[in-house]
């Protein structure tokens, strides 16, 4: 366990070095957030029926999404890992006295966390002081806030577990771009990154709620704004833990199978 | 011009060497904007309209912008990836050749896989046109072509501006994505739904308004009075590329090799 912890720390410090890239990212996120909110504002201003999410709830949803984008985005890819697989350098990794799954998991987790730590605070602070309707509102209560933090962290573990599955699929396809694209396009849509899930039609929501993707982004953000009340959030968090267990087990099993079949060409 | 076609032919042959990856990427390029369009569809299903614009009208706007973006990404990819040319010092080689720099940079990359994106926006365009109840005249068709053409000029101009920045910063800048990707995301809705200052900035400084809002007003019969002005608005897009060319030339003169 100590070993994985130090891998994690090393990657964290490493990621923290890219401060100017993070700053550029923050500016981009802001612009993006503004545009999205303005579009929704225009939609809301002439809505015929009461939408299932109020504008302030939506605004905080969007700002949280922008702030924690690196945390919950599925398409962040670590070219290093997929190159290890395609180039055959995975042989080195296999020589290490550590489980490959845990090792990579710690790496990916740290990468997300370092990116998010640098980016989230400027976005959160500034968006608290913006005028209505762009202001990020305070969480609906202290319990909601605690639940939000808990579910966000669980969501982070979950999204890392999902992205591990993508890397494992590279073992089979040997070309990272294909599997990344499919997962990214679908996952992004199903986790509510393009359109918040409550705004989608009923039938689609029903499909989405049976899949794990919405637990990564949509679920914590809606707890924050109080759109999901505390007792429902509790059951949701239990579901998160269950999904996490399933995906971790699945990932480990698939990985061990893939490693048994791996053929390293010498060179 | 003959030289340019030769460049393209060579690049096409080299990209076709990896056939499977080529088709996969083309398909992927087609899918990415599709999910955005699906999002748009679901939003309209819930809200019905946006500031008086119907789904088909916004779809037309979406198609025009994405088409222009896809075409200019196809052709202007060399400028998009220009920072790597500067970082590696390969731009020196471009400078010593007896041809213009712009032609050579344009010819250095050509992304055929963007055809997927183009195909997708073409489908959206056909869909939008079939759903719109607009009386099509020759002039309107002409305006549509003009709009897409000028959109290409605007996006290419932005790519050039961003590339020019590399002369000073050496690195590629992520902030520049605001103008390219951000501009595309924003301009897929008619500019009138945004606040005045946003709409003004993107009409008079970077003329996105000239390719999405003003000519569409003409095509959709929303204009009052003289339509000619609206029709000719896209021409402003072509004018936009002139200062970009100027800035590029200044940049080239400032270029200092990284010397690697």
Account of the 3D structure:
The complex is a heterodimer of chains A (267) and B (260). Chain A has helices at residues 2-16, 19-45, 55-67, 69-72, 79-87, 90-95, 100-128, 142-173, 176-190, 202-209, 218-224, 230-261. With 267 residues, chain A is mainly alpha-helical. Chain A has one domain (2-261). Chain A is globular. The model of chain A has no long low-confidence stretch (mean pLDDT 82). Chain B is mostly helical and 260 residues long. Chain B contains 14 helices and no strands. Chain B has helices at 2-15, 19-47, 55-80, 82-87, 91-96, 101-108, 115-131, 138-169, 177-187, 196-205, 208-212, 214-219, 228-232, 235-254. At the A-B interface, helix 2 and helix 9 of A face helix 2 and helix 9 of B.
* Helix-strand string of chain A: HHHHHHHHHHHH
Whole-number average pLDDT of chain B?
79
- Computed over alpha carbons, the radius of gyration of chain A is 20 Å
Structural class designation of chain A: mainly alpha
> How helical, in percent, are the residues of chain B?
over 70%
Q: What's the topology here?
A:
The complex is a heterodimer of chains A (267) and B (260).
Chain A lengths: L1 H15 L2 H27 L9 H13 L1 H4 L6 H9 L2 H6 L4 H29 L13 H32 L2 H15 L11 H8 L8 H7 L5 H32 L6
Chain B lengths: L1 H14 L3 H29 L7 H26 L1 H6 L3 H6 L4 H8 L6 H17 L6 H32 L7 H11 L8 H10 L2 H5 L1 H6 L8 H5 L2 H20 L6
Supply database-style keywords:
heterodimer, A: 267 residues, 12 helices, 74% helix, B: globular
């Amino acid at each position: 366990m100590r070993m994985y912890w130090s891998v994690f720390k090393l990657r964290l410090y490493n990621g923290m070095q890219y401060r100017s890239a993070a700053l550029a990212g923050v500016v981009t996120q802001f612009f993006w957030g503004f545009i999205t909110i303005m579009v929704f504002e225009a939609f809301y201003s002439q809505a015929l029926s009461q939408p299932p999410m109020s504008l302030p709830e939506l605004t905080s949803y969007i700002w949280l999404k922008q702030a924690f984008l690196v945390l919950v985005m599925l398409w962040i890819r670590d070219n290093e890992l997929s190159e290890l697989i395609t180039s055959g350098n995975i042989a080195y990794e296999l020589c290490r006295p550590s489980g490959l799954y845990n090792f990579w998991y710690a790496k990916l987790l740290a990468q997300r966390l370092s990116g998010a730590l640098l980016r989230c605070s400027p976005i959160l602070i500034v968006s608290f002081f913006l005028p209505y309707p762009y202001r990020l509102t305070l969480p609906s209560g202290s319990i909601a806030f605690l639940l939000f933090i808990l579910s966000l962290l669980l969501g982070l573990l979950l999204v890392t577990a999902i992205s591990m599955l993508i890397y494992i699929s590279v073992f089979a396809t040997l070309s990272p771009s294909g599997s990344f694209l499919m997962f990214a396009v679908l996952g992004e849509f199903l986790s509510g990154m393009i359109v918040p899930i409550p705004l989608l039609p009923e039938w689609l929501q029903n499909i989405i709620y049976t899949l794990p993707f919405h637990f990564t982004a949509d679920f914590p953000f809606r707890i924050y704004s109080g759109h999901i009340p505390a007792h429902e959030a509790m059951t949701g968090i239990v579901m998160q833990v269950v999904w996490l267990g399933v995906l971790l087990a699945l990932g480990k099993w698939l990985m061990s199978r893939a490693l048994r079949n791996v053929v390293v060409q010498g060179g | 011009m003959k030289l340019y076609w030769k460049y393209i032919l060579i690049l096409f042959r080299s990209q076709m060497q990896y056939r499977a990856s080529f088709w996969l990427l083309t398909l992927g390029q087609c899918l990415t904007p599709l999910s955005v369009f699906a999002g748009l569809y679901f939003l309209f299903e819930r809200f019905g309209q946006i500031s008086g614009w119907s789904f088909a009208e916004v779809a037309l706007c979406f198609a025009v912008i994405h088409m222009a973006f896809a075409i200019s990404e196809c052709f202007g990819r060399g400028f998009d990836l220009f920072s790597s040319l500067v970082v590696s010092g390969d731009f020196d080689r471009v400078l010593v050749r007896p041809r213009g720099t712009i032609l050579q940079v344009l010819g250095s990359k050509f992304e055929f896989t963007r055809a997927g994106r183009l195909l997708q926006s073409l489908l959206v365009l056909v869909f939008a046109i079939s759903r719109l109840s607009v009386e099509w005249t020759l002039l309107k068709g002409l305006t549509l072509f003009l709009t897409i053409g000028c959109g290409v000029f605007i996006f290419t101009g932005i790519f050039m501006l961003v590339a020019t920045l590399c002369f000073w910063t050496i690195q590629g800048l992520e902030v520049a994505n605001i103008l390219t990707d951000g501009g595309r995301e924003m301009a897929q809705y008619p500019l009138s739904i945004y606040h005045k200052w946003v709409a003004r900035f993107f009409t008079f400084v970077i003329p996105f308004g000239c390719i999405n809002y003003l000519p569409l007003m003409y095509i959709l019969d929303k204009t009052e009075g003289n339509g000619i002005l609206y029709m000719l608005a896209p021409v402003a897009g072509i004018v936009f590329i002139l200062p970009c060319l100027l800035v590029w030339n200044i940049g080239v003169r400032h270029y200092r090799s990284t010397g690697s």
